[in-house]
Amino acid sequence: MKLFPALLLLFITERAAALGIGEWGSSTPGGNYIGHDHLTDVTSFYLSMGGQKIDSLDGWYFYKNFVVGTFNHSSRYFIVDESHSRIKTFSKKEEWSEYLRNNQLNPPKWTRWYYDDWDYSLNELPEYLIFQFILSAVIAGLCSLLWVGYKTYKNQDFRWLRIYLFTTGIVTTVIWGATLIDVFLSKHPQSI
After folding, report:
1. Do both 30 and 96 map to the same domain?
2. How many structural domains does the chain have?
3. At what angle do helices 160-187 and 125-153 cross, to 10 degrees?
4. Which residues sit opposite 25 in a β-bridge?
5. Nearest to 68 by CA among 85, 52, 81
6. How far apart are alpha carbons 116 and 20 in whole angstroms?
7. 108 vs 33: CA distance, rounded Å
8. Assessment of whether the complete model's pTM goes beyond 0.85
9. In the listed set 68, 102, 136, which residue is the last one of a domain according to the structure?
10. Which range of residues forms the domain containing residue 92?
11. Are 179 and 132 in contact, with CB atoms under 8 Å apart?
12. Residue 92 to residues 56, 76, 138, 160, Cα–Cα distance (Å)
């Protein structure tokens, strides 16, 4: 019985265990870098050419080879042209919004705002899926117990194994499907 928690901890990935807290860093679609330093709790954008950077990022999105976002507790705004390695900052939201409008940098369909790491490591995927399968089996077991309890209360016949396997299959399919969609979207972070 003491082996199960140890096995469960073995399969918990860094991403699942950290819940977004900690140090991370990822390349932007334009080849620059956004990273979070867990010691100072600051997220920064680093422009690869020119050595410029923006500290204290709050949120951002990627669109048409630009990175658009807010920083300094959402009191300042920025636009990075990744193709020309230029950073523009704004202290007034109205000026920033007008620049976005004039340069068509407002995604018409879906603005995908990011507040932490968006990039999913494919190296972690197998162990993450194993962890999710174990989690699915536990969730399905609990759901099956509730179903069996309900059927017993109503004095109806039930098939324990069939219910459990069906529930496990459904829960696993939903969780794995959501994970694969998440992986796909993390590899294509652009707004549309």
Report:
1. yes
2. 2
3. 150
4. 35
5. 81
6. 7
7. 25
8. no
9. 102
10. 21-102
11. yes
12. 17, 7, 50, 62
